[in-house]
Design brief:
Blueprint lengths: L2 H12 L5 H16 L3 H6 L7 H15 L4 H5 L1 E4 L2 E4 L9 H13 L8 E5 L5 H9 L4 E6 L2 H13 L5 E4 L12 E6 L4 E2 L8 H4 L4 H4 E2 L6 H13 E10 L5 H9 L3 E7 L5 E8 L6
Parallel strand pairs: 3-4, 3-6, 4-5, 6-9, 7-8
Antiparallel strand pairs: 1-2, 9-11, 10-11
Helix pairs in contact: 1-2, 1-4, 6-7
Bound molecules: glutamine.
């Protein structure tokens, strides 16, 4: 079968399920992954012939996409900050807004010369600690997660990206003390309220880990409160705390963090939503 014939079928079959631009992006991700061909390669080979097993692979992917399985689960990997990450149903698929958070941190650290100690809370796939470690050669990076399954993936991702990270299995909500002083603490904790589930697509709702995503409607800032409280004690003076946040709770999250004695600011993502928060520890002592 010619790839171009399969392409027609692929677009037709998925047109009821996704917008065309999304189908297009799936198609090129799959051809890159299964055939090792870029979009340009394919344009130069209009008569590319699919082997039977390749056709079967594409067919399988097509059926999974029709069930709204995320394409990253089908490929078992994704790209984040220019790096390759393995993903599974046990970790949140790295999001572009989290890349914006990493960019913000790296911009702020661009002129930093000393070696700094970083703690990331909620490793997930490891996208935050791995991309920070990759871009900050001298940093000492620690990362904690409550899920053993997630840690296995994060450890694998640190390995394939050649970085050294101290990963630990810990439940931050049950942590009394961070044990050492850090220059920087970062977290993208669960922050989606149940009441927001109606805005979400089935590829997220049915396929991504609840543990990484949702919080109780009545206690949506639970992780921010706990982490700010710990950071107020274990961030060095002048140290910084970065969060990815719920876009609807920007002001509340800002107030909460300020309440722990931090100087804090919000930052919007490329869609204009309050999505990130930075806080600096200005006081020297505990509150
Ligand atoms: N931004 C993610 C989403 O919308 C949520 C990430 C999180 O809960 N930390 O699916």
């Amino acid at each position: 079968m010619h790839l171009s014939d399969f392409k027609k079928v692929f677009f037709e079959k998925l047109s009821d399920f996704y917008p065309e631009t999304e189908v297009q992006s799936f198609y090129f991700l799959l051809t890159q992954h299964y055939l090792g061909k870029t979009r340009l390669d394919l344009a130069l080979e209009p008569k590319y012939e699919l082997l039977e097993e390749q056709r079967a692979q594409f067919q399988k992917a097509l059926l999974r996409l029709k069930k709204y399985e995320p394409v990253q689960h089908i490929l078992e990997e994704t790209e984040f900050y220019g790096l390759r990450f393995k993903v599974s149903k046990n970790v949140l698929i790295p999001r572009p807004e989290t890349e914006e958070l990493v960019s913000w941190i790296l911009e702020d650290l661009a002129s930093e010369e000393k070696s700094i100690r970083i703690l990331d809370i909620g490793s997930g796939s490891g996208c935050i600690p791995v991309s920070l470690a990759k871009n900050l050669n001298t940093a000492e990076v620690h990362s904690w997660d409550v899920s053993e399954e997630a840690l296995k993936i994060a450890i694998f991702n640190a390995k394939i990206n050649n970085v050294n990270i101290d990963f630990q299995l810990k439940d931050i909500l049950k942590t009394e003390d961070l044990e050492q002083q850090y220059d920087l603490i970062v977290s993208n904790p669960p922050y989606v309220r149940n009441l927001e589930k109606k805005e979400m697509h089935s590829n997220v709702l049915d396929h991504e880990p609840e543990l990484a995503l949702y919080v109780d409607d009545k206690n949506a800032l639970i992780f921010y409160r706990k982490i700010s409280e710990l950071a107020a004690k274990n961030l060095k003076t002048g140290g910084s705390l970065y969060f990815e946040i719920n876009q609807y709770l920007g002001k509340e999250t800002l107030r909460l963090v300020q309440g722990f004695g931090f100087e804090a600011e919000l930052k919007k993502d490329i869609f204009g939503n309050d999505r990130m928060l930075k806080a600096i520890r200005i006081n020297g002592g505990e509150l």
